[in-house]
Every structure is written in structure tokens, then in C-alpha cells.
């Protein structure tokens, strides 16, 4: 009969597999002086799964499906029924593996179905989540602007402009104007300096006679090159 009672030099023999392993490879147990249980972690997991399957069968009268065996670096997608490499799955920090349950195509399909069911589509979902308004509020705000960009006046703008500090929606802008405000960090001071800079470096048309204009050089800056 094998004696499992004694440990030797920080090791213990597992009661199931009979192998000597370091104490760190055994599950924690408050009932043992060493703080470790009698079974190594792999054997303990096998026992836990068997115990769970037994309880499910007794309480609910059904069998627990055995775990699907997949190669290392792969994962099984329950939606399409395929085994794929991990890089075919989205990242998910909530899962112990670091990857989502469904592969990217199936994950995207589920996401789109959820957006359609809860919000009526991706556009409504994006507006609600990012800006706190829906397509109806977007259309009303655009109508108040006359259907044009609130800055340059181009027709049919599609981008919501908001205050990055407070989150308040300010208006509907075209792509260029919305990006321009972002590049200037929504700073009136920076924009005023940019206007001053352009006025001082851009050639101006000056009316010298009715219908006659003269190009005046900027107050500073280099003259245009011959090839410009």
C-alpha cells in the first residue's frame, strides 16, 4: 500500500496519479497544515468535473457534455461549429483564455443582430452610445442648421461635433470641419492665432478701382517659388 501521508522536501504524492510533485502544483486547502490538498491540480479538475456531472444528473436528470478536445492555440466556436486558431477570435479580458467564445465572423453577426434588435441598426447604436442622441435628434439639429455644415456651409454633413470636456453635442459638421476643430483641440485661441497667421502670410486681393484688383504681398513669409 502506498503511503500518501508524508511530504518530502516541499513535495507531495498525488493520491490519484501517484506522482511526486511540488506543493505549488496542488490546490489550496485550509484543512491541511501545509495549506495544500491531497490531489494535484489536473487530478483535482478531473474530480471536480466528475462531481459536477454527477450532481447535474441527480438534480436535473441530464448528462453533461464532455469537454471538446482542441489543439493548443485553437478554440471551438459553438455558432459555426468550427475549431479555429485563437487569432480568429476577438480579444476578451473577461474570459480566462483572453479570447471571446465566438469567432470573429460569428461574433460580428451576433453583435449586428443585437444592435438591430435593441437600436434598429448600427447608425442608431453609434449615435446613442457615442453622443447620447438618436437619428431623430440628429435630423432635427441638422434641419435647424438649414441642412448644411454649421461651419463651412457644405450640404449634407454627417458628423456630430461635441465638446470633449462635457460631452454636449454642439452641431453637425462635415468631415473636414469636424476634423479641423479636433486638430486645433477646440481652442478658440489656437483658431484665432491660425487666422492671424493666414492673414499675415497669404496674398490678398485689394480693390484699387471698380472692378480692378491688385494682389498684395503678405506682411511676412517667403515669395512663391518659380515652380509653384
Automatic annotation (TrEMBL):
Keywords: Endonuclease, Hydrolase, Nuclease. Coiled coil: none annotated. It comes from Micromonospora sediminimaris. Transmembrane segments: none annotated. GO terms for molecular function: endonuclease activity. This is Recombination endonuclease VII.
